[in-house]
Amino acid sequence: MHCFCCDRVMETESTDNPIIIHPVYDGLIFRATGNFGSTIFDPITEEEILQVIICDDCVKRNAKRVTHIYNIVRDITADDKSLEFMEDEDGRTIRKRIDC
């Protein structure tokens, strides 16, 4: 597999099955099931995905263009009993999935 940005050959755990996510050494894996606004990839079902690998060096080199988002909380309805919310020691809201 190659870095999407610089074409560097990336070392991964060996597999012939692209559906299984194996660790990429010194890089990150991104997968997309599509996007409504895309003019090149927006399948109707989630049976098809795009996968991109970017090496750590390219991420660091472009760090000013990377958005780091921590702890996204989704909208909760009154009948959603699958998540439990609490605060961590720093006062940040965290969520924990619970069995219903």
Word description of this protein:
The longest helix has 6 residues. The termini are far apart. Helices cover 6% and strands 22% of the residues. It has 100 residues and is mainly β. The protein has a two-stranded antiparallel sheet with strand order 1-2.
What is this structure's SSE topology?
Elements: E1 27-32, E2 50-55, H1 56-61, E3 83-87, E4 93-97
Distance from N terminus to C terminus (CA atoms, Å) equals: 40 Å
Q: Radius of gyration from the CA trace?
A: 18 Å
Helix content: under 10%
Count of alpha/pi helices: 1
Residue runs with pLDDT of under 50 for 5 or more positions: none
Strand order in space, largest sheet: 1-2
Choose one word for the global shape: extended
Mean pLDDT figure: 77
Order of helices and strands: EEHEE
Structural class: mainly beta
**Fraction in beta strands:** 15-25%
Gist of the model:
This protein has 100 residues and is mainly beta.
Index terms:
extended; 1 helix; mainly beta; 100 residues
